[in-house]
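re: that chain from earlier
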Amino acid sequence: MKLANRLAFITGGGRGIGRAIAFVFAREGASVAIAARTREQIAEVASEVIQLGVDSLAIECDVGNSTSVNDAFDCFRKHFGRGPDILVNNAGIAETAPFIKTDEAMWERHLNTNLGGTFRCTQAALLEMVGRKWGRVINIASIAGKVGAPYISAYAASKHGVLGLTQSVALEVAALGITVNAICPGYVDTEMTTRGIENIVARTGISDQEARAALETMSPQNRMVTPEEVAALALLLASDEGRGINGQAINVDGGTVLF
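^ sequence. v structure.
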């Protein structure tokens, strides 16, 4: 198995991309902590992961709060005996508004959760990875971290920040057996995208089907990415086979963004 005896900490693990990554890692032998704010969701995923024959733990964690993050990692270490070998920073929020209607509270929510959460969790995990001279940090960013779009200024700014953080940390730890990379999905068929479609319908009056089709046609493949496709790339980055990939921001978007 590619991840036998590895320990993974996945934020935003209760649904969507995080959930898919948890299952892929578990099938390859990793023990997995499922971290998020919603207890019911993470408990359900952890229970399903255990059925795959590995250990799993549900940890309530708000990545926007330093105390919550530190408590979550303490809980992880108490349960597994040490810190994670693999960190997946997947927790995030996505809200839309014209820039002139983007208030400071919305701006701060995105920076604090999407960028700040990645910062906090990476700091909490990295020191032990340095000590062991092995580690993987995988940041789930977005193609919005490479190109902006209307109505997502706060989200795009936070994801651009994630890519800058990814590159800087990757270079600091490159000689220490640790890789730090970002995955940049396009639109993924998840609950977050469904909420976005609902917002489009409410704002424009078009049908749900029309809104979904509009998002699908943004990709040259005329479809949304699946969470499992993102998880497959995360597995490569987490494995020994991916050790030569470092400081990269890899798109999973059907060719929407070509850099």
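The radius of gyration is 18 Å.
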